[in-house]
From TrEMBL:
This protein's record includes keyword Repeat: no
Protein name per its UniProtKB record: Sodium:proton antiporter
Compartment(s) where it occurs, according to its Swiss-Prot or TrEMBL record: Cell membrane
Mode of membrane association: Multi-pass membrane protein
The species this protein was found in: Lampropedia cohaerens
Length: 109
């Protein structure tokens, strides 16, 4: 139980870090003379299997500036995400996995 609580605390700290970094990136893009954005909708394969885990991930993605969760596929295997800069699709997916999904998987275990 303690291990799970520590993982939740770690997720909160990671979210706050991502919130700050994403806020800065969106502010820079908003005030740039020539923003180099490539908005995209990305289909992210999910490793999470519980509804609570998927809902948590979708909410964390939506709360992070520059990304919005749009839809979870009916089979719960894909999360569709809109991002302001989708020039590196695999980079966006890896970032979400590394930041949020990996820790949520630990909490679910």
């Amino acid at each position: 139980m303690l291990w799970r609580g520590l993982a939740c605390l770690r997720l909160a700290v990671i979210f706050l870090r991502e919130l700050a970094l994403s806020s800065w990136a969106v502010a820079r893009a908003a005030f740039a003379r020539q923003p180099a954005l490539a908005p995209a909708i990305i289909a992210m394969p999910l490793r999470l299997r519980t509804e609570m885990g998927i809902a948590t991930l979708a909410n964390l993605v939506s709360l992070t500036p520059g990304t919005t969760s749009l839809h979870v596929s009916q089979d719960h295997r894909t999360l569709y995400v809109h991002c302001l800069d989708g020039s590196d699709v695999q980079g966006v997916i890896n970032g979400i996995r590394r930041s949020f999904e990996d820790v949520i998987l630990e909490i679910e275990a």
